[in-house]
Amino acid sequence: MRRTSTLATLATLAVSLGSALLFSALQPAAHARAVEVSAPPPGPDSSVRISTEYARLVARDAWFWAWPMVNVFNRRLAFQRAPEPGLFGGVIPFAPLNRLAMLSDYIEPGQRWVACPNQDVVYGASMLALDLSPVVIQVPDFGKRFWVYQLADIRTDNFAGLGAMYASKPGFYMVVGPNWKGTVPRGIVKVLRAPSATAFVVPRIFQEDTPEDKAAIQPLIRDIDVYPLAEYDGTMKHRDWRTLRRFAQPAQADGGETRWVRPEQFFDQLPAVLADAPPLPGEQSRYAQVLAVTAAARKDPALKQAMIDEAQKADKELVDPLLQFRNWGVPLPHDWTTLDNGARFGTDYFMRTAVAKSNILVNAPNETRYYYQDLDASGVRLDGDKRYTVTFENGQLPPTRGFWSLTVYDEHHFFVPNTLDRYSLGTRNKALKYGSDGSLTLYLQADSPGADKESNWLPVPKGAPFSLMLRDYWPDARAANRSWTPPAVAGAQ
Known about the structure:
CATH class of the largest domain: Mainly Beta
Domain DUF1214: 368-476
Number of strands: 22
Helix content: 25-40%
CATH topology of the largest domain: Immunoglobulin-like
Signal peptide: 1-32
CATH superfamily of the largest domain: Domain of unknown function DUF1254
Radius of gyration: 28 Å
Shape: globular
Distance between the termini: 107 Å
Number of helices: 9
InterPro entries: DUF1214, DUF1214_C_sf, DUF1254, DUF1254_sf
Strand content: 15-25%
Domain DUF1254: 98-228
Pfam family, one: DUF1254
Structural class: alpha+beta
Largest sheet: 6 strands, antiparallel
CATH architecture of the largest domain: Sandwich
């Protein structure tokens, strides 16, 4: 009995030892396989001869997904030429890099630098070059007034939240680039790190359309500023933005937005743009592919010309149609659309480019909810020769903790001058008339709806197509979960 037990024990030990030896013997091979699997695969070889058709394929793809980044890059080059803070064309805030220019009232209707402006807020603009210097942003105490500063990178994604909805404190904020290392001076409320050296700051401060509020906002906006870190001394700098110099602006031939992305320059600029926008997870191969092809094109003029030609086609066939709101967005009732990832696009290339083409520099959804419309209640294109109404039933105004507005744009998404000099209606308008049942009807037409209705009249461009945008600044939960959506744009009977 004891002999059997001993043999069983020895057998068990042998099996265990054999398994251990086998496991040990297999370890190097398994380890080698693990190393082999985890090693990154080789990327494109830029010395290989490639076909013209392949170069066209890569060029077409790159034109679409990199279009917004090149757009911002060229705006940086434009701001770089500003001699001092001023107003480009007399209407657009325009300042040297790492400095701010601020409006002192609503934006005037003549600007063509940024599509879909609004006349609800007083705007500012600062283009940051964080490879040159960190910057300091001044935030005054706005009290109960709505405000938000947009801070976005070269991709048009927000990298920080600064505004009323974040309960941000007044004071000094410091913005640094992705590789900055240094000492934070005393008195800085918070350091905000951008993922790219190129970034921008766009303050938006709500203003009611009354002489009293236009005067009351001046002491607040004079304390808004952006400047290089070297100028920070812990004290608020003050500036009367009403005294800004006005710079001339060349006329636009087609009435559309300034053309910021050009096929003939695109592939020369792309390497610098991508160097400033490190690839997001999963983008490494995309970057390697396009950089290899652009490198090949630098050595082959015919290949480069084919890529430029393909970019011109892609611009017309892929990007241009995205100016029209009806071609993109999250569908809502009555042909309205919206977006859920504004300024948080990540690798959603379609939405990033659609927004950059049609209304670049949108706020994040918790800051502003945007609703877009090109069509009437029957699905027909909005037409300035027709008359329309938008009626908010009692208790059904846009659900907001800030303010709301409905704005009219022409087919290029800009204002069209009208006799009232009025381009939107909403919270800021104190003369709106409500029905006896508590409803609010807005009249959208080129001619007056009658003296008794002019307070609710939103003029549209006569004899031309137009679009609408409803903004809900600091929306509440009903906007986020879509339990509230805008009413139909009804044709007048």
